[in-house]
Design brief:
With 353 residues, the protein is an alpha/beta fold. Helices cover 31% and strands 14% of the residues. Helix 6 packs parallel to helix 10.
Length: 353
């Protein structure tokens, strides 16, 4: 960071693999494009690696020395556990937690429960955390701020919160949809037995598949081995082990009839679905997948029911029944960055207290 620039300053934590990893996912996509857009907004934004952030005292010293206005740790950071926020109050005044996932509130990544304490109204700044609040272990009484990607019941336990979504205009607004093309299928977010059953049903119906994987998950790695070992696919499965959406968007979604993304997780935001909509490809997903239904043209309550609907849409002579993609969102990365710049500016005031 440039010393004495006079511009707002922010630090974002990234995984040690950086941005060169073949398993680049949603967190990397978000931080890469957010920081680039923040710099265009006049914010002096930079990164530090997860291993550097493991020493909280060193991180606190760096934040003070560089006069950082806001620091954005990964959700796994030790800053969000135990009493670290009490020991390092100066760091926590500048800390912003972005809820990329819900692992701190839901071990299986399903939707966190609504809070009975805050059902009638959100938590207020400075108020004590009641014993019945399911977010109590995530210490919402600490001085850090929270950013949520949607306003949902489980977010209302956190008193100092902002709602700022992500964008998808890092891929162009193109129409790559071809109703007679292959179905793009992402695996890794349902149990492997369900993935195998879905694959056999889709192939048995004569569909061509282009398969991608959520390789950060155990399920994703198991699905990749499953697809490699699956007999009788007769060249009807194209496997994309890895890709960089910045350059490979047409390779992933070009000429696709549909993007099929079954997920049992509570998706705070799903970039693959957002990118498909941006590229004119309709999305099919489960109806309880967090933010996913907001991108879906086709939904069903279970994996089997979803696959049945996809097969019915793609049946011989029924190509016109493939649903149209949803309209592209109007929010872009410049809009997102402008909101984050406001949050970072608030950090400059807090840091002086």
């Amino acid at each position: 960071m440039a010393e004495g620039s006079g511009r707002p300053r922010a630090l974002f934590e990234i995984y040690d693999e950086g941005f060169a990893s073949p398993s680049w996912g949603g967190v990397e996509t978000a931080l890469w494009h957010l920081v680039r857009s923040l710099r265009e907004e006049g914010v002096d934004a930079g990164f530090y690696r997860e291993s550097e952030g493991s020493d909280l005292d060193a991180l606190a010293a760096r934040v003070e020395q560089d006069r950082v206005d806001a620091v954005f740790p990964l959700v796994e950071s030790a800053l969000f556990g135990g009493g670290a926020w009490r020991r390092l109050p100066g760091l926590h005044r500048r800390t912003v937690r972005i809820w990329h996932d819900v692992s701190l509130l839901s071990a299986d990544l399903s939707t966190p429960p609504a809070c009975p304490v805050h059902a009638a109204g959100p938590a207020l700044p400075g108020s004590p955390v009641p014993a019945g609040c399911p977010a109590r272990g995530a210490h919402p009484d600490g001085p850090m701020r929270e950013v949520f990607l949607r306003d949902l019941p489980w977010t209302r336990c956190f008193p100092d919160r902002s709602v700022i979504g992500w964008a998808a205009d890092h891929v162009p607004d193109k129409d790559l949809h071809d109703p007679s093309g292959p179905v793009v299928l992402q695996l890794g977010k349902i149990d492997t037995v369900d993935a195998e059953r879905a694959l056999r049903r889709l192939l048995g119906a004569g569909l061509r598949l282009r398969v991608i994987f959520a390789t950060w998950s155990r399920r994703g790695r198991e699905a990749r081995e499953l697809v490699r070992a699956l007999p009788g696919s007769d060249g009807r499965i194209e496997v994309l082990d890895s890709y960089d959406i910045r350059t490979d968007w047409e390779r992933v979604f070009g000429g696709a009839a549909l993007f099929l993304l079954p997920s049992v997780f509570h998706e705070t935001f799903n970039f693959a679905a957002a990118e498909a909509v941006q590229l004119g490809v309709p999305v099919a997903t489960l109806g309880e997948g967090g933010n996913l239904p907001g991108f879906a043209s086709l939904r069903a309550p279970t994996v089997d029911a979803l696959v049945d609907r996809v097969v019915a849409c793609a049946a011989a002579g029924g190509s016109r029944r493939i649903p149209a993609p949803l309209p592209r969102p109007g929010t872009g990365w410049r809009d997102v960055a402008a909101r984050y710049a406001e949050v970072i500016g608030e950090g400059a005031v807090r840091g002086e207290r």
